[in-house]
Design a protein that fits this description.
- β6 and β7 form a beta hairpin.
- The termini are far apart.
- The chain is built from no helices and 13 strands.
- By secondary structure, the chain is mainly β.
- The strands form four sheets. A five-stranded antiparallel beta sheet has the order 4-5-13-9-11, with no helix packed on it. A four-stranded antiparallel beta sheet has the order 6-7-12-10, with no helix packed on it.
């Protein structure tokens, strides 16, 4: 069985006096969604919010975790299948974590309603992580610059 190493990350918040305070991570280790363990549930430790360029509310679910993705693999963060019950949509549909990335695993969701949204609570599983093998590729241009003629209809 392969193991994936996660690390807890402390974080900084502004105190009431405007001074940065370091907070200890309360990260929750991801859990297998099935017995064979091909997909891991990610749990939120805290929630922050911001507005996108159009003024819509964006919620960031933090895990306070980093993960060591081995070379030849990527981590793919997706919404949970039960996401249809929430008023949220992952901002970029899928998040890709490349091998060597050292930052926090987090996911940004757009609120999809103008009413009071149904969201994930702190400590709740909000997304899923898959570790997937990938092959290295070298992009090149084909040297044949012939014009391809098509028939317009």
């Amino acid at each position: 069985m392969n193991q994936i190493i996660f690390k807890k990350l402390d974080y900084v918040v502004k105190g009431e006096d405007g001074v940065d305070e370091i907070k200890r991570s309360e990260a929750i280790l991801p859990t297998k969604t099935t017995e064979n363990g091909t997909i891991l549930d990610l749990y939120s430790t805290r929630l922050t919010q911001e507005a996108d360029n159009s003024g819509k509310l964006v919620l960031t679910y933090h895990t306070d975790l980093s993960v060591e993705i081995p070379e030849g693999f990527v981590g793919i963060v997706t919404m949970k299948s039960e996401a249809y019950k929430r008023s949220l949509s992952l901002t970029n549909s899928v998040e890709v974590i490349p091998a060597g990335y050292k930052g926090e695993i987090a996911a940004r969701f757009k609120v999809t309603t103008d009413a009071v949204p149904t969201i994930y609570a702190q400590g709740e599983a909000f997304a899923q992580l898959m570790i997937v093998p990938v092959e290295s590729v070298d992009p090149i241009f084909e040297e044949d610059n012939k014009v391809i003629e098509t028939e317009n209809k």
